[in-house]
Design brief:
Radius of gyration: 17 Å
Distance between the termini: 32 Å
Helix content: 40-55%
Strand content: 15-25%
Largest sheet: 7 strands, parallel
Order of helices and strands: EHEEHEHEHHEHHHE
CATH superfamily: NAD(P)-binding Rossmann-like Domain
């Protein structure tokens, strides 16, 4: 990662002010990286630079990257995590329900990766990590928009690998399952128990367990891994 004579590598985590994104940012800080997060509101964890950005707006993305580059330096590691859900069954799903989720989760990834890749290509180094979901390959009723946007990240990462792999740039996908968050904690105990029965590990993951996989993919130990989909789901989606 870093040595006494080398500057800390710079990481940008989109949507790094809460949930899995926040845990990822915290883990990178603990491991000695220089970390920035994008957020539409709120602040990233202690030790990070927070920049305002809506990933559906290319101009806002460019401004956020420019701010990070000015204050921390060129971005070495990009974690595309920002995402939204608008869950409902297909026949009730509006055009906006579909378009807004795809524009944020998939279009947002396109915008931030395109912007990050310019300096990565110039410097012949980069780690691109896309946060998908077990739902992307496993499917989930009421989440056609979300599942489609998350499944698409696999094709995105593998195409990016074929385009940029020869320039020491890797692109991988992490697919979390059920994670311990405020949202899962608010579920009725009976519902939580039902979900856990479907998970071979019999429990939800801690957000830091996802973060550990992400920081490993950013490390030199994973330099020869690209185009991979790594599930962090306790076995829920295995075989998909």
């Amino acid at each position: 990662m870093t040595t006494d004579s080398a500057p800390a590598r710079v990481v940008l985590v989109t949507g790094g002010n809460r949930g899995i994104g926040r845990a990822i940012a915290e883990r990178f800080v603990r491991e000695g990286y220089a970390v920035a997060v994008t957020a539409r509101s709120g602040e990233g964890p202690e030790g990070t630079l927070t920049v305002r950005a809506d990933v559906t707006d290319a101009a806002a993305v460019d401004a956020a990257f420019t701010e990070v580059e000015d204050k921390l330096g060129p971005i070495d590691v990009l974690v595309a995590n920002a995402g939204i859900t608008k869950d409902t069954l297909l026949l009730r799903m509006s055009e906006d329900d579909f378009d807004s989720v795809v524009s944020t989760n998939l279009g947002g990834t396109f915008r931030v990766v395109k912007r990050a890749s310019k300096n990565m290509l110039r410097r012949k180094y980069g780690r691109v990590i896309l946060i998908s979901s077990v739902v992307g390959l496993y499917g989930s009723a009421g989440q056609i928009n979300y599942a489609a946007s998350k499944s698409a990240l696999v094709g995105f990462a593998r195409s990016l690998t074929r385009e940029l792999g020869a320039r020491n740039i890797t692109a991988n996908v992490v697919a979390p399952g059920f994670i311990e968050t405020d949202m899962t904690a608010a579920l009725p105990e009976e519902t939580q128990a039902e979900y856990k029965r479907s998970i071979p590990a019999g429990r939800f993951a801690a957000a830091d367990e996802v973060a550990g996989v992400v920081t490993w993919l950013a490390s030199d130990d994973a330099a020869y891994i690209s185009g991979a989909v790594i599930p962090v789901d306790g076995g829920l989606g295995m075989g998909h």
